[in-house]
Write the structure tokens for this entry.
Amino acid sequence: MISFENAYAVLGVSEQASEEEIKSAFRKRAKLLHPDKNKSADAHEQFLILHEAYALLSGNPERNFLSAEKEKREERALRMRKAAAAYARMKYEEYLRELELYRSSPYAWIFKILYYGLFFIYLLCAMVFACIPLVLLTYEVKWFFISCPLWVLSLFTFSYAYGWKKEIDPLFKKKTQ
């Protein structure tokens, strides 16, 4: 958050500057600090600070400090939302590059064998868990009832295996455009 003193310093004007001087100083600095002209790493942030300083000093001189603080908070929240959107987009692009690496790798067939082999092992375990109570029913009824919770484990294993399969299937699908 920028203060009034800092806003005057950012624009390079005195505290007694007129509205026209503030506007002129803002335009000159904006031409220098615009991210298209300024190649420094923090050019975007400098430009936003310049805009924040200008918004604080321009307009009605009778504007009270509380309304200026509210505007700064809203502008900062908007800036944070834009930064979060850029970050989220970057992560999605990294995800797409990772998918493309799986698809285009000469070793993709090894990954497929490993992933789908593990999937089938999960399914085999789930079927074993489901069959144990039925096999124990041939011995005694009490063993059947004792082993019935294995059906819950079987259902959990099936659902886990198919959920995991939904995650790995996109890795091997051909990209369609």
